[in-house]
Amino acid sequence: MATAAAVVAVAFGAYVHHEGSRVEEQPPAHGPTGVLPEKYLGTWKSSLKNADGSHARTMVIRQGYVDDKVMTLTAVGPRKDGAKYRCVFEARLDSVTSGAVRLGSSAVASGKPPSACTAGKPSTLTLVGEDKLRRADRDGAGKLTYDRSR
Fold this sequence. Notes:
A hairpin with a 4-residue loop joins strand 4 and strand 5 (101-103). With 150 residues, this protein is an alpha+beta fold. It has one helix and nine strands; from the N terminus they run H-E-E-E-E-E-E-E-E-E. The longest helix is centred in the N-terminal third of the chain and has 24 residues, at 2-25.
């Protein structure tokens, strides 16, 4: 009986080892998680000032493929009437080149009050130094430089 149990244990061990080796030799089931260069990914912060006061911007860039939602932008600041606004926008990836990331028009994901939030134009992201990123409208009308958030 003990001999039979030992034979089964050895056979089972050999089977598990063989199956484990086969799994390691197989290519991964999934490809890369996206096409964006790693240096664009993460959280970026900026602000702008006008007559109403200071307006904070936080942009998050996630990995993805063309047509995926890869950018979320949260805009917070004062309104002319003294109230505050908070808008969240999302944009899809249009393309990636060696020097830039192109985003489609941004859509309003949420807004308080809704009247304070308007969809944005297609834009281009370019790195400006190691920890700075510029987002510019493709028509050249607006630019804002963001700092990498730690």
